[in-house]
Design a protein that fits this description.
The chain is mostly helical. About 65% of the residues lie in helices and about 0% in strands. The protein has helices at about 5-20, 25-40, 50-70, 90-105, 110-120, 125-130, 135-155. α1 (about 5-20) runs antiparallel to α2 (about 25-40) and α2 (about 25-40) packs across α3 (about 50-70). The chain is flat. The termini are far apart.
Amino acid sequence: MLTQDALLAEIPRLRRYARALTGDAARADDLVQDTLERALAKRPLWRPGNLRAWLLAMMHNVFVNQLRAAARVDFRSPEELPDVPVPARQTDGLELRDVERALARLAPEQRELLLLVGLEDLSYEEAARVVGAPLGTVMSRLSRARDRLRRLMAGEPEGTNRLTVVK
């Protein structure tokens, strides 16, 4: 039987996937809500098994349907279009690739905490509970992870140790 608790438990994963699909937190929340509405409406069709896979497949279908609906464009003549400059976006994909590569080069415990706090929006305390480490350790690992990510993104060579003189 599909329970409310089971659906609630899947919301964080649905939100993460929705953010990956839409690239926008507000649109992701709308997509999660649309998915949960559809899941509740289609509750009789669910068969016991992998609820997460069923919900993610449903979310994918809702997203594709929304894209198709948005693709119907009302074309206007060039005279009707506003004269707004559009920033170049050619480098966005390259920057995203660089971030992914830099994240992959972090130590697993650093990457995990950086994603829990930065991507999953967990507090330091929540992240500490998730990984089973003291709060101070989490803060230390996050600091080192952020510093290393900054250096990797800046293209600094791997072997350079940055020592700071403390007085």
